[in-house]
Write a sequence for this structure.
């Protein structure tokens, strides 16, 4: 899952979203004092953006969505490969452009309505026929990343839609047609953004009625108070003021029912505060454990789970705002100036690695033969001199009040890399900004940013999900246009033969590292910790942990 796109402010809904005011605290007390522990409070680093995953791109929104909603295809437990979800099977036709999905029968949404083929088409047609602000990249980011466009595009930046149509064959059989063969299908349908919603709830709560402006997006009540899926938990209440979101067991779930009665996500932005809340028993687990805390907490008996390193931290270089950054030699100088190994050794958890490509070597298409930019300050100074950039001054944005799986302490990382840049003569103007919405707005839109950190946790095990998301078209984050590179992506994505496609991804990785739109920094294995008496959760490289199987030891 991605570093989130720019998030619109939700202050206006602070009161409206108190669906069950005070429920989180009372549920926690009941669960901890009863004869059987059935309430788990889990600490998270940030608030979700919205509760409708179709309108989200951030990890905290998706964490909630994965418990409440389900997709046609889901990732295997603890892995990245597709496995049955609401669809039991999926089969392509001879052209590879029409996929037939056989659906589970007897599944109901949380409002009691049936999940069937018609419901699938209602959902896909909702996304495909999006209008107005629903076409904003801040609102339907994943639809644009995967499908490209809509039935009627309202922006010249949008292309032809990959999705073509949805056809009901019978109540448990549906055909999804696409305009071309794509490496994204069917794996991308595992994404929470493609979760199935109750058609009745979508209509009743005007789920597509996104209003406001591009700078101040207003989300409908469905996205804040009435998320209605088929998952093992159902929404109970979001107390924004007290930073708690409560979901409860779906007693009518079609599969194995959740072992917990109540699951509460509590936002605690400070890493040390999360740790102390765990030790005091206020929470029974949290995500994004600091690298220095992994072994001490494990030694104290807490249940430490380490995810495989399925992410990338990168330094983005924006070529549009500062003309010097459009010079390849300047970008090469920046890359050679950075002591990435020292950063990995001193600031990241055990098992972290310096990145060679913009995705880890566990993904097919990784290429160890690309151009490498080893730490070489003398070479950096030489390149700056050759480019006539010896007095280069750059604005370096970094986020505050946040911890991400690929970025445990942004300020520490900034200080290290900033010192490296200054050591070769580059003047650095620090620009610290609150993660959401300030930092995300500043770095993924416009051109008033030179350097910044961002990263990505993979959504599924395909190279395009990493590098295609970053570089397959012009984006404000990077500020470049490279038609030849864009054409390589289009060719690879439409290549049906997997082996041939892997070779094309290797070639793209070489092109990317020759062009050097940014510097891949590292891959980290982030940790998640649970209470000493909590079991049943499997760490996921996709951060797709499922709490329906969590339970307290008796």
């Amino acid at each position: 899952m991605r570093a989130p796109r720019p998030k619109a402010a939700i202050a206006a809904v602070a009161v409206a979203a108190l669906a069950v005011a005070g429920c989180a605290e009372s549920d926690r007390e009941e669960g901890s004092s009863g004869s059987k522990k059935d309430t788990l409070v889990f600490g998270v680093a940030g608030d979700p953006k919205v509760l409708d995953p179709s309108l989200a791109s951030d990890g905290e929104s998706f964490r909630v969505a994965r418990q409440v909603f389900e997709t046609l295809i889901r990732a295997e437990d603890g892995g990245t490969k597709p496995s049955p979800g609401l669809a039991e099977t999926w089969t392509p036709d001879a052209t590879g452009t029409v996929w037939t999905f056989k659906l589970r029968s007897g599944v109901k949404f949380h409002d009691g309505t049936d999940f069937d083929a018609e419901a699938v088409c209602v959902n896909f047609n909702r996304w495909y026929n999006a209008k107005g602000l629903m076409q904003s990249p801040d609102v339907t980011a994943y639809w644009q990343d995967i499908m490209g466009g809509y039935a009627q595009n309202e922006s010249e930046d949008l292309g032809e839609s990959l999705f073509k149509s949805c056809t009901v064959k019978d109540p448990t059989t549906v055909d999804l047609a696409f305009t071309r063969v794509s490496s994204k299908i069917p794996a991308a349908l595992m994404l929470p953004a493609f979760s199935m919603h109750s058609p009745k709830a979508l209509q009743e709560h005007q789920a597509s009625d996104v209003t406001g402006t591009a700078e101040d997006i207003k989300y409908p009540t469905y996205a804040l108070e009435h998320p209605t899926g088929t998952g093992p938990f159902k929404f109970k209440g979001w107390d924004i003021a007290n930073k708690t979101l409560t979901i409860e067991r779906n007693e009518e779930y079609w599969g194995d029912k959740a072992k917990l009665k109540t699951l509460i996500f509590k936002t605690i932005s400070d890493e040390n505060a999360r740790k102390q809340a765990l030790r005091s028993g206020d929470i029974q687990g949290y995500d994004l454990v600091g690298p220095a805390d992994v072994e001490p907490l494990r030694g104290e008996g807490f249940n430490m789970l380490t995810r495989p390193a399925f992410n990338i931290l990168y330094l983005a270089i924006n070529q549009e705002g500062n003309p010097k950054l459009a010079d390849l030699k300047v970008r090469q100088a920046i890359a050679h100036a950075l002591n990435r190994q020292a950063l990995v050794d001193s600031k990241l958890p055990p098992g972290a690695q310096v990145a060679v490509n913009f995705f880890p070597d566990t993904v097919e298409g990784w290429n160890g033969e690309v151009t490498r930019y080893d730490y070489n300050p003398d070479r950096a100074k030489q390149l700056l001199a050759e480019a006539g950039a010896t007095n280069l001054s750059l604005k370096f944005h970094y986020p505050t009040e946040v911890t991400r799986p690929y970025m445990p302490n942004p300020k520490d990382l900034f200080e290290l890399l900033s010192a490296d840049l200054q050591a070769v003569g580059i003047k650095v103007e620090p620009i610290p900004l609150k993660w959401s919405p300030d930092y995300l707005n500043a770095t993924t839109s416009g051109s008033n940013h030179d350097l910044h950190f961002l990263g990505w946790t993979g959504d599924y095990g395909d190279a395009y999900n990493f590098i295609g998301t970053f570089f397959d078209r012009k984006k404000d984050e990077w500020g470049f246009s490279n038609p030849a590179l864009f054409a390589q992506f289009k060719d690879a994505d439409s290549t049906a033969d997997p082996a041939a496609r892997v070779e094309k991804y290797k070639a793209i990785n070489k092109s990317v590292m020759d062009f050097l739109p940014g510097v891949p920094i590292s891959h980290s294995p982030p940790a998640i910790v649970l209470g000493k008496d909590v079991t049943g959760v499997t760490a996921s490289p996709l951060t797709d942990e499922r709490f329906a199987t969590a339970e307290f030891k008796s």
Observations:
- Residues 3-35 have pLDDT under 50 and may be disordered.
- DSSP finds 16 helices and 23 strands in the chain.
- Residues 308 and 541 are 5 Å apart (CA to CA).
